[in-house]
UniProtKB/TrEMBL annotation:
Name listed for the protein in its UniProt record: DRBM domain-containing protein
Protein's UniProt keywords contain Acetylation: no
Molecular functions (GO terms): double-stranded RNA binding; siRNA binding
Domain of life: Eukaryota
Domain DRBM: 7-70, 166-226
InterPro entries (alphabetical): dsRBD_dom, RLC_Component
Sorted UniProt keywords: RNA-binding
Length: 236
């Protein structure tokens, strides 16, 4: 069962089911903070999602589409159940012999993909983390980056933060932030994703290393709270 169903995000499920359907992104600057709208089109219908992270905007657009896709399927099954008589038809073979019951045709719906999506949503809803175990006297820790020791939060954001380290700056301005790592791709080149939540606002960063992904996550948070964009400095 584990081989058949594993947790998958809405974007992963959508990419597997609709490989050739592009997801478009639009930028929307608002109060010096860049937000994104992801849109996709299926059968002439448009589905969208908004977020300050490009990846999360895509996730929301895919989630909206998959939710409607599942709702339509459930509605169709309910209607067919009401219309279909309860009598079971039997196939009549030669010499009037009765063979196996003639059931309804098998439906072509990606239930395993939705099971993977449901498992992903359940894990996120319950905020599950890997369990700490001991094997051969070696302790394995959950894949959560421990926050830096609280050194007292800054009372004021630095006037010229371009020489500051974004990770250290977040630890100073918002002590106690927990960062959660996710391996997006273990193949070369590898891709990591780091998420954090600050004051009920979620931030995401991606990079080829865990440190790079964490840095991008902190840059997104700094841009949101203090309207300073480290990426704009690096691009200049």
């Amino acid at each position: 069962m584990r081989r058949l169903v594993s947790p998958k995000s809405p974007l992963m499920v959508f990419s597997e089911l609709f490989k050739d359907v592009p997801i478009h992104l639009q930028e929307h600057p608002l109060h010096n903070v860049m937000s994104y709208t992801a849109t996709l089109e299926i059968d002439g219908q448009m589905y969208s999602g908004n977020h300050i992270s490009k990846t999360q905007a895509k996730q929301k657009a895919c989630e909206n589409f998959l939710r409607i896709m599942l709702a339509k399927k459930i509605s169709e099954r309910s209607e067919k159940k009401e219309e279909t008589p309860m009598d079971v038809k039997m196939e009549i073979g030669e010499n009037s012999s009765v063979s196996k019951p003639k059931g309804p045709p098998q439906e072509d719906f990606p239930w395993p993909h939705f099971a993977s999506l449901a498992m992903h949503n359940l894990i996120n809803q319950w905020e599950l983390q890997p369990v700490v175990t001991k094997a051969n006297y070696v302790q394995e820790e959950p894949n959560v980056i421990k926050p830096q020791p609280k050194a007292g939060a800054m009372r004021k954001f630095p006037e010229n933060p371009k020489n500051c380290n974004p990770i250290q700056l977040i630890n100073q301005m918002k002590p106690g932030v927990k960062f959660v790592e996710t391996i997006i791709s273990s193949k070369t080149p590898s891709l990591f994703q780091v998420n954090c939540v600050i004051e009920d606002v979620s931030f995401t960063g991606q990079g080829s290393t865990k440190k790079a992904a964490k840095k991008e996550c902190c840059i997104a948070a700094i841009k949101f709270f203090w309207q300073f964009d480290f990426n704009a400095i690096e691009n200049n």
